[in-house]
Amino acid sequence: MRSTRRSSLDITHLPWDSELFGIKVYQVSENVTLTPARLPRLIKELLDNQVDLLYYLHDAKRSRDVYTLTASGFRFIDTRIVLNIELKSAKITDTVPWFQLVKRNAGQVNLKPLIAMSKDLAATSRFSADRLLKKTLILKMYKTWILKSLEFEMADYWFGLGTPSDPFTFVTFKTIRPGEVSLSLIATRRDLRRKGYGSALLRHAFQALLAKKVNRVRVGMQLTNTKALAFYEKMGFRSVGSWYIFHWHR
Ligand SMILES: CC(C)(COP(=O)(O)OP(=O)(O)OC[C@H]1O[C@@H](n2cnc3c(N)ncnc32)[C@H](O)[C@@H]1OP(=O)(O)O)[C@@H](O)C(=O)NCCC(=O)NCCS
Question: Pfam families from the entry (predicted)?
Answer without folding.
Answer: Acetyltransf_1
